[in-house]
Amino acid sequence: MRRIIFLLSLTLALVTQAQAQRQDDMKKTVEYLASQELGGRYPGTAGDTLASEYITGQLRSLKLKPVVKGKKKKGFYHDFTYGKTEKRTTHNIFAVLPGNDKRLKNEYIVVGSHYDHLGMGGEGSGSRRPDTLGVHPGADDNASGDAVVLQLARHFKKTGSPRSIIFAFFGAEEQGLVGSKFFLDWMKHDDKRRINLPADKGGIVAMVNLDMVGRMRNHSLSVSGTGTSSSFKEMVEAVARQTGVHVSCIPDGYGPSDQASFVAADIPVLFLTTGGHMEYHTPADVPSTLNYEGMQQTLEFSQELIARLAALPEAPDYINVPSTQTMKHAKFKVTLGLMPDVMGASTTPGLRADIVVAGKPAHEAGIRSGDIIQEIDGKPVNDINEYMERLSELTAGTTIPVKVLRDEETITFQVHLTPPIR
Q1: Which pTM does this prediction carry?
Q2: pLDDT averaged over the chain?
Q3: Helix (H) or strand (E) holding 401
Q4: Which terminus of the chain, N or C, has less C-beta within 10 A?
Q5: Dihedrals φ, ψ of 285, to 5°?
Q6: Residue 280 CB: number of other CB atoms within 10 A?
Q7: How far apart are the C-alpha atoms of 245 and 240, rounded to whole Å?
Q8: Are strands 204-210 and 108-114 parallel, antiparallel or unpaired?
Q9: Nearest C-alpha neighbor of 227 from the set 208, 247, 253
Q10: What are the backbone angles phi and psi of residue 131, rounded to the nearest 5°?
């Protein structure tokens, strides 16, 4: 009995030590990619180059296959040029882990994140503080995803995978998913004799994307795309039970990140994120604000999810799920000027306002980040779908009551509605 207890204690200590090492490795990656030295990783800049050299260095150390055959350093790069008025050249970064199952190894899973960010910000950059020029470090967006994907590469290099895995780091995501779109086009037109990738995009059977996974709250994770294949929702929920993560499943895969490019190409996707926060797209998105224990949970969830996906006896089918958010957004005649909690991380009835934008209708009325919206115009709001339904019913120029819960106090604000900026 003493020997069993000793072995159990030793195993637990080794597991804890391994978890601490992975957290430390992820923290080091985030701290470098989101450092002032890299200047916000804007495509085509020196910081962009440094970031890509760091990532390719990690991939080379794992002895993963580069994309282009016969090239040692540049073989990990897929270069592309974009822009109409101002041309910029940057690249995607890919490494390939060949599958170990004779039947499944010719089917590929893309596990990706984007590594670019907003540089110094400014007008038209996407910064939420466009009047402030300064390094936008992008610790959560998306150094956090890069750090997790590098650890996934390390894990599967050690354990192997029945299907082949492409570890992808996309460039110019913030400029409109540019890198992922170029990648899928490359799959259709490039010479496959010289690259370690499937003969066409049809060889890619699924895509798992990680974007903004560094701010986990209440062990909660949002997973979009669970309806894009018939087995996905059940699989995600089973992994959540196994790993102790609370998941919010969103059927469609149309979200503001690179998985949307794959959905558009009829490839089933799963998009993992821990959601928005006040530091999103500002100079305050720094490494010290991240939850590294939460990133460890996301890593463990992702490892199990990808392992199950890679071992499916048949390739996942693709289901075309219309974008509920896109369809309803087209009907919106108003905006409140807030970012809701799409994950449903709050256990209190209602929908939490993650970010309330200064100067917009909700903020002007007195609503603040963290308030839980329970009613709009006298009608209940319990989740993101009801929230969007309420917005679709409203008209610009009117003033409506919005009831929120703040701490333990219920407050009703009068919100004057304005049209969204197109």
Answers
A1: 0.82
A2: 89
A3: strand 399-406
A4: C
A5: -80, 75
A6: 18
A7: 5
A8: parallel
A9: 253
A10: -90, 0
- Measured distance CA(84)–CA(96) in Å, rounded: 32
Task: Say which residues have a Cβ less than 8 Å from residue 202's Cβ, sequence separation at least 6.
Answer: none
Cα–Cα distances (Å) from 238 to 158, 304, 305, 308, 421, in that order, read: 24, 10, 9, 10, 40
According to the model, what pLDDT value does residue 12 have?
60
Separation CA 233–CA 385 (nearest Å): 18
Report CA-CA distances (Å) from 388 to 22, 349, 351, 396: 39, 16, 11, 15
CA atoms within 13 A on the CB side of 196: 22
Using CA atoms, how far apart are residues 141 and 134, in angstroms rounded to an integer?
Answer: 16
Cβ contact 401:413 at 8 Å: yes
Contact predicate 247/218, CB 8 Å: no
Three-class HEC string of 42-91? CCCCHHHHHHHHHHHHHHHHCCCEECECCCCCHHHEEEEEECCCCCEEEE
Residue 54: is its pLDDT beyond 90?
yes
- H/E stretch holding 4 reads helix 2-33
Strand pairing of 65-66 and 246-250?
unpaired
CA distances from 110 to 163, 165, 350 (A): 10, 6, 35
Residue 225, phi-psi category: left (phi > 0), alpha (psi -120 to 50), beta (remainder): left
| Token pair listed for 352 | 């939490």
Whether a cis peptide bond, with omega within 30° of 0, leads into 142 is: yes
Who contacts 386 (Cβ-Cβ below 8 Å, separation ≥6)? 351, 380
Q: How many residues does the structure list for the chain? A: 422
Q: What are phi and psi of 395, to 5 degrees?
A: -125, 135
Q: Where are the beta strands (DSSP E) in 159-310?
A: 164-170, 204-210, 220-224, 246-250, 269-273
Least confident span in 60-64, 95-99, 191-195, 296-300:
191-195
The SS3 of residue 216 is coil
Instruction: Name the token pair of 33.
Output: 């990619």
Q: Is 255 helix (H, G, I), strand (E, B) or coil?
A: coil
| Best CA proximity match to 256, nearest among 207, 318, 211 | 211
The alpha carbon of residue 153 and the mean position of all alpha carbons in its chain are separated, in whole angstroms, by 17
Q: What is the pLDDT of residues 366-390, one digit of tens each?
A: 999 889 999 999 999 988 778 888 8
Query: What is the C-alpha separation between 121 and 343, in angstroms, rounded?
Result: 27
- Encode pLDDT of 79-134 as tens digits: 999 987 889 999 999 999 999 999 999 999 999 999 999 999 998 888 888 888 99
